[in-house]
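Item description
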Amino acid sequence: MRGGNPRESTWTRAESEAMSAALEAARQGPRGANPLVGAAILIDGRIIAVGHHRGAGTPHAEVDAIDAARHAGADFSRAELLVTLEPCGHTGRTPPCAQAIIDAGIPRVIHAIDDPNPTASGGAAALRAAGVEVRSGLLAPEATVLNSRWLECARARRPFVTAKTAMTLDGRIAAADGTSQWITGPAARASGHDLRARAGAILVGSGTLAADNPRLTARVGSGASSASTSPIHQPLRCVMGLRPVPSDAALRADDHWLHLPTRDPREALAVLAERGIGHVLIEGGATVLTAFLAADLVDELIVHIAPLLLGSGRGAVGDLGIATLAGAHRFQPDCPPVLLGDDIVIRCTASPRAH
């Protein structure tokens, strides 16, 4: 069967189970400029391999699954590949997944949803042109929810926004005298550096710049950056606000920084999108975080909570203009909370917008 109307397709139990496995694998990847994608390979109704995308520059989910199946000695002539997002049809940091599927000789592909990114889409058409049977729509609602905010960013042509904050148990990011270094411990801070290394740009407000004079560089952390021998990727260092950036600011160490002279989050993101930035990490302070939250432009929220109480001081978030509980900004946990040293890390994604 060719075509992609899910209402015309009858999915087998094995296909549904394989797509469910692909969705579960996708959740293991990091959010950011790329969507979460998982893939599974069926042969004779049995799942023989599952793969997922682990971040920029790593094999895509389809290739990850194909490599695992090949290692297991799979006969691809009887295989069916199921993937949560339409296989890409372009060459980026990695070759197109559609061609990898064709080269492997896999005759049937099912993808949950189409890719809205005009640069990456077209993989389904390339597969059909090569004689591969392509269907779509299996578990499409679940796949859409998984990447709802990324899909929104792709359609709006804006960067995906992750906001990270470190706070005490009572929601303070600084004591009454302004001191804030360090609320969290070494393990949580190392995790933050790994997050910086994955982002295209890191953004703080001019108030944070004046108070902390941060370097905003990614340094060796506890994850990918410490395990790799390659140079750590450095995000574009950005300051948002109307105040000039002092000539002796630490982030001026080289030319890889940018002043965004605005208080409008949408304007700041538009400038970064024009520069090709696909993932922005907001690290503070409360004024900037509040502005992005109030505009519903925080797609992912990562909260580091230290076992401290201050009772007074600077709160993590300011007034969002919410007068009733029903108007609260809601986030969905991506995974169970993680203990890093003495600190708790919570990762969550903004709920899909109401249309």
Remarks:
- The chain has a mean pLDDT of 90.
- The CA atoms of residues 85 and 113 lie 5 Å apart.
- The first strand starts at residue 38 and ends at 43.
- DSSP finds eleven helices and 16 strands in the chain.
